Amino acid sequence: MTATNGPGATLAVRDLSIAFGRQKPVVRGLDLDLAPGQRLGIIGESGSGKTVTALAIMGLLPENARVSGSIRLDGRELVGLSDRALSRLRGDQMGMIFQEPMTALDPTMTAGRQVAEVFRLHRDRDAGRARAAVLEVLGAVGFDDPERIADSYPHQLSGGQRQRVVTAMALVNRPDLVICDEPTTALDVTVQATVLRVLDEVLDAVGASCLFISHDLAVVSQICSDVVVMLDGEVVERGTADQVFNEPRHPYAAGLVATARLDLLEPGTRLPTVADHVRRDR
Amino acid sequence: MSLYEVENLTRVYSSGPRRVVALDDVSLTVERGQRLGIVGESGSGKSTLIRLMASLDRPTSGEVRFDGRVVSGVPERRLGFLRASVQLVLQDPRSSLNPRMNVGDIVAEPLRSPIIRRERGDLDPRARVAEVLDAVGLPVDAARRYPHEFSGGQRQRIAIARALAPSPEVLIADEAVSALDVSVRAQVLNLLMGLVDELGLTLLFVSHDLAVVRHVCPDAVVMQAGRIVEAGPTQRLFSEPEHPYTARLVAAIPAFRARP
Questions:
Q1: Whole-angstrom Cα distance, residue B23 to residue B221?
Q2: CATH number (domain holding residue A227)
Q3: What is the mean pLDDT of each run of 10 residues along chain A (282 residues)?
Q4: Which of A51, A71, A129, B254 shows its CA 20 to 30 Å from the CA of B35?
């Protein structure tokens, strides 16, 4: 991966460690770099520390988390920043898309009002200008009828439509960084295809960098130019998506990629496992 | 005679004036030893279909025959042969395994059912538990432990051991590997395919994941909105889908692609 830890980096994470209470760290000595417009995928199994890393960057870790190291967004240190200061960044410089759109949306508010709130909170109180921004961003995430979607409540929308509304909320303020954590995991495969296409387009249109977390390696390969592989809280491999998915170097990364690449196997044959590549005691 | 014969099966759920046709005139046969994939997205009717095939629910109309005997709409006490012969492995072993029972009791539970005992005779539950735990690659002392002491993949092995306990002919796996990490998924699939081969089981493999179905099942049916829209050899469904929905489904599978 191109190291871009100069002043121009969107995100620079240095020696990040995270532990909960008195337990041993769940993330250890993590370094990440994201240049403007760059898209970095984090892959790894449950418990590898992907989501905790994302939560740390967003400042959403629970009270008992102990964080050390440095997280810089556009050059500004986030570790140690107050909740108030962080909440001013979230939704503005930093957009977020999580797995479950139904919990990210308020069921009592129309989709349009929820997107508008993000805009009015950070950008412009004016209701008319907010409405215009909402319709524009709903159009950008692929809705042909933004007016109708804006006036719908979440329960009136399908799962894929909801996730596009969440995508619109994440991008309405044209953030520098969008963090996606398993954004299509709860969706059917045809819906997933639409949501990924839309995400790809709006990230390009806005020029945002993206940190994309998924257990689905093929999905990551569709969105990301670069990939890191996490194992037990540490990065064991980093490189371009092309390199990691085609010529992984670390034995664990090689195992993970091999198990995921059903497309390369003769049907009915034994699947390669991580244990074929590396011995782990878990 | 086919092992399973499903004829014009329809299931309508109604609450008040609302009617939902979950399954719409579905017919299907399953041969002994076949590995059949049932593919579709949420709401396509795949779970309703297997619930009816396992006689866990009654059809609104139509019939299911197993080994020549009607099983749809038959009272539970006369379903012993089906209960002994057809076992299920479900998606989430966290919710399908009773957390208060130790693994030995969980696995032995099907053997305690009076209607299964009538079919299979009195098996020695302890010996059988040891046998099936070994078959799924768990240590014998696992029997004394509780589900929460195991990882997700191990819990799914426990669920498979329980399904195997009454020596069934048919295994129905409903999204059995969908909640697992890819590396664990590979291990569980290897185990499942190995057991199906070794024991000569018939496998009904329900999944939303076409790539997995292609790997596990030589044949598959594609469901959409309560109907089977296409059936055939899985390879053919992939390479030359005839129904536009199958084509859409195949095209939507995320492929590995290298970005510049």
A1: 14
A2: 3.40.50.300
A3: 61 97 94 97 93 95 95 96 94 92 90 96 94 96 95 94 95 96 90 94 95 94 96 96 94 93 90 81 48
A4: B254
Q: Do B254 and A255 touch (CB under 8 A)?
A: no
| Number of Cβ pairs < 8 A linking chain A and chain B | 101
What predicted TM-score, i.e. pTM, was given to this entire model?
A: 0.88
Question: What secondary structure letter does DSSP report for A163?
Answer: H
Return the closest-CA partner of residue B4 out of B60, B56, B78, B54. Answer: B54
Predicted pLDDT at A4: 45
- Chain A CB contacts of B41 under 8 Å are 188-191
Strands A234-240 and A226-231 turn out to be antiparallel
Domain count, chain A: 1
Tell me the two tokens of residue A154.
């979440």
Measured distance CA(A32)–CA(A228) in Å, rounded: 9
Nearest CA to B174 out of B249, B238, B96 is that of: B96
Q: Write out the two tokens for A214.
A: 């998924």
The shares of helix, strand and coil residues in chain A, as percent rounded to the nearest 5, are 40, 20, 35
B183-200: average pLDDT: 93
Structural domains in chain B?
79-168 (3.40.50.300)
| ipTM of this complex prediction, to 2 decimal places | 0.82
Q: Which of A246, A267, A274 sits opposite B214 (nearest CB)?
A: A267
Domain span at residue A102 reads 11-247
Two structure tokens written together for A237: 């491999």
Nearest CA in chain B to A45: B181
Residue A216 lies in a domain: yes
Q: Which one of B41, B185, B189 has the shortest CB-CB distance to A190?
A: B41
